[in-house]
Design goal:
Length: about 280
């Protein structure tokens, strides 16, 4: 028996024609897309500094000290991991301004004793102090200083909320003597909102503390020079100068709901004024 012959029905012929038309359409679309892409302007990435990763036009590296500042103090920065994603962070300026053997950055949220025995040893040293303002902190200027004094200075790098979280989640941070700085000038980090007028960035806090421990007042201006340059660059390109949250709330410039802690603080202040008047 002979095999049946292949005969295209009308439906099969229509399907084949539709497939051919679809292929022609896709090829035409592909050619059009390729032609369009060749006509688009070529986006040229701005040259970036390999050191600070910022565009060359706004690079703050030229404002660093010509050589690392000679210090006796050993600086340890406990850095929240999220700080790495911030493009306007100040810790890199500090790291590049000091000798590598004197400035150490340790990243993390929790520092268990079992995993950080070296850090625990540092915390337990009588020469270790931690910059942490509060009722149990002493004025850093009251510390005994000599030509051979070599303190270990601990700082926490992160937002204020992140810094509090790191402090309360790590029992070893309760060990060192707490110190605070009394600095009358406002923060130079004017492109970022600070909690209050006395708040300083990580870089500025370290600069003020080191100027006291090293008895070198000029350290403040030297270390904050790249920060000032960074802020000036940002202002030139559209950023605005920020007032602290405290200033904005006091002067009716705060547009969000006022925190309960602030309202209680204001109520307490008003009660004290009333009692004094009586």
């Amino acid at each position: 028996m002979a095999a049946p012959m292949n005969v295209n029905t009308d439906d099969e012929q229509n399907t084949e024609n539709e497939d051919n038309n679809l292929c022609d359409f896709l090829f035409t679309l592909s050619d059009l897309a390729e032609e369009t892409m060749t006509q688009l302007p070529v986006v040229i990435r701005r040259d970036e500094c390999k050191a600070c990763t910022r565009p060359i036009k706004v690079c703050w590296c030229p404002y660093l000290p010509p050589k690392p500042i000679d210090i006796k103090t050993n600086l340890y920065i406990l850095q929240h991991p999220y700080e790495l994603s911030r493009c306007l962070r100040t810790a890199p300026m500090l790291v590049r301004s000091l000798p590598p053997e004197k400035c150490h950055v340790i990243q993390g949220k929790k520092f268990p004793r079992s995993r950080h025995p070296d850090l625990l040893e540092i915390m337990e040293s009588p020469k270790t102090i931690m910059l942490s303002p509060g009722p149990d902190a002493i004025d850093i200027e009251t510390l005994p200083l000599t030509d051979i004094t070599e303190y270990n200075l601990i700082l926490i790098d992160g937002t204020w909320a992140q810094a509090k979280g790191i402090y309360y989640q790590n029992p070893m941070l309760k060990i060192p003597q707490k110190v605070q700085i009394n600095y009358s000038s406002k923060s130079k980090y004017i492109i970022r909102t600070q909690p209050n007028d006395s708040s300083l960035s990580t870089l500025e806090s370290a600069a003020v503390a080191l100027s006291i421990l090293e008895n070198k007042p000029d350290i403040i201006d030297i270390l904050t020079k790249p920060l000032v340059a960074l802020c000036n660059f940002q202002l030139q390109y559209g950023a605005t100068s920020h007032q602290s949250k405290e200033y904005r709330m006091k002067n009716g410039l705060w547009t969000k709901k006022l925190p309960k802690s602030w309202l209680k603080k204001q109520e307490k202040a008003e009660n004290l004024k009333t009692n004094d008047a009586v």
